[in-house]
Amino acid sequence: MNVVRFQNAGYPVSKSLVDDLYKSFFVNDRHAGRCKHIPANLMESENDFRIELAVPGFSKEDVKISFHGDVLVIKSDKEVKEMEGVNYLRKDFVPAGFKKKFILNEQVDTEKISAAFNNGILEIVLPKKMKEPEKSAVEIEIK
Fold it and tell me: In whole angstroms, what is the distance from residue 35 CA to residue 28 CA?
């Protein structure tokens, strides 16, 4: 029994088409249910930029952060442990390996990047470089 019925120019849309559309939005079929999308929040304040990543099922030992050139890389090579005798009826998240890259601009003080892990949220703080105060004009004596 269909709860919602879709119609297109008088022709009903097949249930499998709707199911396929739903799956394409919410499941990464290429990875057989292993969605590698890690949600991120990006914030800016006067003194820094912040990145928050939602990584449920991971510990701080599972995640590695590196910086090379102007690219910040956050990754995990954690492997999925399938439970024997369990038949998933729905699988919206899998704590499997992921990799996210962020290109940083010249405003970031790369020597002072820090990270903290709390309750499945990884927070990375990217301090801004301190602006040097503008020097006042200096008069040069002509000899």
Answer: 5
With beta carbons less than 8 A apart as the criterion, state whether 40 and 51 touch. yes
The CATH number for 105's domain is: 2.60.40.790
Is 69 part of any domain? yes
3-state secondary structure (DSSP) of residue 107:
coil
Residue 22 lies inside a defined structural domain of this protein: no
Rounded Cα distance between 64 and 53, Å, is 13
Structural domain count, the chain: 1
Over residues 58-113, the pLDDT tens digits come to 889 999 999 988 899 999 988 877 778 888 788 777 777 889 999 988 889 999 99
DSSP helix, strand, coil percent of the chain (3-state; round to 5): 15, 35, 50
Residue numbers of the domain that contains 106: 34-80+89-127
User: Does some domain include residue 28?
Assistant: no
